[in-house]
Design brief:
The chain has 213 residues and is an all-alpha fold. The chain is built from 8 helices and no strands. The mean pLDDT is 89.
Length: 213
């Protein structure tokens, strides 16, 4: 592997490693003080603490940014892409739940219990806003944004979506997150707008929250 290619991988894997260490250490500390019943609050704390460093990685990454849509038609099309992916995400979630994989994934049961705790407004804030922003900055912004500069678009989107699935650490969420990550990757590759994937991701989470629980 030549030095230039190695440097590309360092620019991708170092932010991912830093995110993983900071996020899970913070989450563990918060959980030890707040307890499992307030896991959603611990998730919020960990996300907010990690958000700053991830945003700095995003701002410093050599990315290609697209201008805002300059016509009503372009705004409408982008809105339709966002709404379509959010609805597809809800459908994918329902399909994965019907696959009856829960017995093979203790990690999912624990994650589900945490995500279902707390008030509806707190869950909407965390799952519909803060967590999607953090994940989109890292996985679509830092990781996919750089992969698209030096890999084939299909390879870049597939690799970033698999990483997105793996970082959920259980079978059920891996399947859902990997497929959803691929759809969000397609949206980012088409628009180069991180705010578009953030809205689509957050809207999908809110649909799951209010229709499934």
């Amino acid at each position: 592997m030549n030095s230039n290619r190695r440097n590309h991988w360092v620019q991708i894997l170092y932010p991912l490693f830093a995110y993983y260490v900071l996020y899970y250490i913070t989450d563990s500390i918060a959980l030890s003080y707040l307890g499992e019943k307030r896991g959603i609050l611990a998730l919020l704390v960990a996300s907010l603490v990690t958000l700053g460093p991830v945003y700095l990685f995003y701002k410093r990454a050599p990315l290609v940014h697209a201008p805002l849509p300059d016509s009503r038609r372009e705004w409408i099309m982008e809105g339709l892409y966002i709404a379509g992916i959010a609805c597809l995400g809800l459908k994918i979630n329902l399909i994965v739940m019907d696959m009856d994989l829960f017995a093979f994934s203790e990690g999912y049961e624990r994650s589900s219990a945490i995500l279902q705790g707390g008030g509806i407004l707190l869950r909407a804030l965390v799952l519909g806003g803060v967590v999607p922003l953090l994940e989109e900055l890292l996985f679509r912004g830092v990781i996919l944004g750089q992969l698209l500069l030096w890999l084939d678009r299909r390879q870049a989107i597939l690799f970033s979506s698999v990483l997105f699935g793996i970082l959920h650490f259980n079978v059920v969420q891996f399947l859902y997150a990997a497929v959803m990550g691929y759809l969000l990757g397609l949206l980012y590759e088409k628009t180069r707008h991180i705010w578009a994937t953030w809205i689509a991701h957050g809207l999908c989470n809110l649909l799951v929250l209010f229709f499934i629980g």
